[in-house]
Amino acid sequence: MKPTHIEHIGIAVSNLEESIKYYQEVLGLECYAVEEVTDQKVKTAFFMVGQTKIELLEATAEDSPVAKFVDKKGPGIHHLAFAMDDVATALNDAEAKGVRLIDKEPRGGAEGLRIGFLHPKSTGGVLTEFCGKK
Ligand code: CMX
Fold it and tell me: Looking at the predicted structure, is the pLDDT value of residue 77 above 90?
C-alpha cells in the first residue's frame, strides 16, 4: 500500500477569497477550481505546483473540522494527502498496523476522489489523508 505521490497539501484558511489572491498574485499560481465539499463542511480552492496540488480549505459551518482547527491553532497547514491506488485497502492495511483511523471506509471527497483520514495522534501529529480513484 505504498503511496504513489503526494496528492495534495491541505491548508486551512479563514478567508478563501483573500487566500486565493495570495497564491495567485504573489506566487503566480492559477486557481483552477473552487468546490464545496458538503460532507466535509468545507469550501476548497485548488492550485497545481508541478505534480502536487495545494488545497485551500475554508470552513462552511461552525462544526466543520476546519473551523475547529482554525479556532484552536489559526490558519496554516492542515493535512497531507497521499495518493493511493486503492484507498479501502490502504486504510485496512494501516489499521492492521495499529493506526487509528478517522474513516473506516473511504468516503467522497473533492474532485470525485475517494478519501479516508488517519488520526493525527497515530501519525506523529500530521493529519493524514489517503485519496484515490477507488
Ligand atoms: N493536524 C494535527 N493535529 C490535529 C489536527 C490537524 N489538522 N486537527 C486536530 N488535531 C489535534 C488537536 O490539536 C488535538 O490535539 P491535543 O489533544 O493534543 O490538543 C487533537 O487532534 C484533537 O483535536 P480536537 O480539536 O479536539 O478535534 P477533534 O478530535 O474533534 O477532531 C480530527 C480532530 C482530526 C479527528 C478531525 O479534524 C477530523 O476528523 N479530521 C478529518 C476530516 C477533515 O479534516 N476534513 C476537512 C478536509 C476535507 C478535505 O480535504 O476535503
Answer: yes
Q: Which atom of ligand 1 is nearest to the CA of 72?
A: 25
Q: What per-residue confidence (pLDDT) applies to 19?
A: 98
Task: Verify whether ligand 1 is closer than 6 Å to residue 78 (CB atom).
Answer: yes
Please tell me the total count of domains within the chain: 1
- The response to whether residue 118 sits with its C-beta less than 6 Å from ligand 1 reads no
What CA–CA distance (Å, rounded) separates 16 from 38?
16
pTM of the model: 0.96
Domain limits for position 73 = 5-132
pLDDT tens digits, one per residue of 28-37: 999 999 999 9
Torsion angle defined by CA atoms of residues 80, 20, 60 and 38, in that order, rounded to the nearest 10 degrees: -60
Cα–Cα distance measured from residue 31 to residue 57, given in angstroms and rounded to the nearest whole number = 13
